[in-house]
Amino acid sequence: MARLPAFGLVPLLIGLSAGCGLAQESLATAKLASASVSLAAPAARTEPAPSRVAPSRPAPAPVLWAVTSLRGTAYVSLREVAQRFSLKAAWAKPEGAMTLSDARGVRLAFEGNEHDFYFDNLRIFLGAPVLNYKDGLWISLLDAIKIVAPLFRPADHFAFLPQQAPKIIMLDPGHGGIDPGTESKRLGLNEKTLTLEVALRLKPLLEARGWRVLLTRTEDRELSKDKKTDLLMRNEFANRGKADVFLSIHFNSAPDNITGIETYAMAPRSMRSTGDEFGDEMTKVAYPSNRFDYANLLLGAEMHRALRATLKTPDRGYKRGRLAVLRMLDCPGVLVECGYLSNEAEARRLATPAFRQQIAEALAAGLDNYASALTALRTQANSPRS
Ligand SMILES: [Zn+2]
Predict the structure, then answer these.
(1) How far is the CA of 193 from the centre of ligand 1 (A)?
(2) How far apart are CA 171 and CA 204, in angstroms?
(3) Could you say which of 128, 262, 366, 378 would form a disulfide bridge with 316 (CB–CB 3.0 to 4.6 Å)?
C-alpha cells in the first residue's frame, strides 16, 4: 500500500494536445501556478503546421489531463491513462497492483510505491514512484507524457522523431586503455576488451544491413587520460561523424549475484535518473540530447527488448540516466549493459565467443527494429487518413 502524507491536493486541469512535445517540455518546468493551463499545439516545424486531420473531420477537442498534486509532484490517475488509450483498468491484487489491458491481454502493469512498470512484459523505470491514491494508482504527469504515452502511442509523437531513416551509427566500445572498466580477476576478463570485441562483431552485422558504421575506438586505448574528457569526446566523435544513432556498449558489475541486462537512455529534463532519490541541479538542465527524448525512448525500448529476447537473461530494467556519454549528443543514443562480469556464471558465459556473438546479433536486431519502427511511423504519418 502506498503511504501518502496528508497534503493539500491541488486538482488542476492541464490542456495537452496529443503528442505535444513542446508543451510537455513547458509543462515539465512550469510551476503549475495556473488553475487552467492551455498549451499550444506542437511547433516542431517552422512552416505553418499542416492540419492533423482530414478537413472532413471536425477539429479534435483539446485533450485534458486531470492533474493532482501528490508529494508536491503533478500526478495523473492510471484510470485516466486507461481511458485515454481505450484500455481496461483493473486491480491485479487488491489495492496493490493495477493492469491496463485491451482485448489482447495485459499491456501495462503497475504496482504502488514501485519505480518501474511493465509494458508488454518489458521492465521500464519511471522518474517518480507509482502512488496509491483514492480509487487507484497514479503516475507522475511527466512519466505519463514522457514515457508511458510516447511508448504506447509513438505515432502521436511522430513530429518529434527523426524524419529520415537512420543510416550512420557510432558504436562506442566503453572504456579502453588506462580505463579497463569492470573486471573479472578470476577469469582474467575486463570490460574494455569485451566491449571492443562485441562492437567489432556488431560492425559487419550492421554493414550487411546497410548501416555505415563508425567506432569511437578500434583498439585498446583511452580517448583521453581525463575520464570526463574521454566521455565527452565520445559524444563529440558521434556529432562530428554526423551519426544518426549512438550506441555505447558496456558490461556491468554489482556487489552480489545480480545478473542480466540494463539499458540506459538520457533522462528527460526535470525527470530524476533511476536510483536518484533526491534529484540534483542537473535535472533542471536541458542537454543537447534532450532534443531527442522521444527517439531516445523508442531506441532504448527496442534495444532492451531485443537484448531481453535474444539473451534470455534477467531483465534489470530500461532505465534513465543523465550520463556524460549521452548528454551532449546531436542524435538519439543509448547505453547498454550486456551482462555482469561480477557474477561468476555470467562472466563465464561472457567469456565465450558464441555468447558475445549473440549479444552482437541482439544489438543488430534492436537497431533494425528501431529503424523499422521509424519507417512504419513515417508511412503511417504520410498515409491519407480516412
Ligand atoms: Zn562500463
Answers:
(1) 11
(2) 12
(3) 262
Res 255: pLDDT: 82
All 3 cell numbers of residue 312?
534470455
Q: Does a structural domain hold residue 7? A: no
Whole-angstrom CA distances from 269 to 82, 130, 145, 318 are 25, 19, 12, 17
Close Cβ partners of 204 (under 8 Å, ≥ 6 residues apart): none
Q: Are residues 193 and 258 in the same domain?
A: yes
Look at residue 315 and tell me if it is in a domain: yes
What amino acid occupies position 5? P
> What is the per-residue pLDDT for 278?
66
How remote is the CA of residue 82 from the centroid of ligand 1, in Å? 38
* Ligand 1: centre distance to CA 234 (Å): 13
What gap in Å lies between CA 314 and CA 323, rounded to an integer? 23
Distance in Å, CA 175 to ligand 1 centroid: 6
- In angstroms, rounded to a whole number, what is the distance separating the alpha carbons of residues 43 and 46? 7
252 Cα–ligand 1 center, Å? 6
Distance from residue 191's CA to the centre of ligand 1 (Å): 7
Flag whether 28 is in a domain.
no
Q: For residues 142 and 148, is the Cβ–Cβ distance under 8 A?
A: no
Whether 368 and 318 map to the same domain: the answer is yes
**Could you say which residues of the chain have pLDDT below 70?**
1-63, 277-278, 385-386
Interval between CA 173 and ligand 1 midpoint (Å): 9
Gap from CA of 157 to ligand 1 centroid (Å)? 32
Does 231 fall in a domain?
Answer: yes
Largest Cα separation within the chain, whole Å, is 69
Single pTM value for the model: 0.84
Report which DSSP code applies to 376: H
Residues 173 and 146 grouped into a single domain = no
Q: The C-alpha cell of 376 is what?
A: 512504419
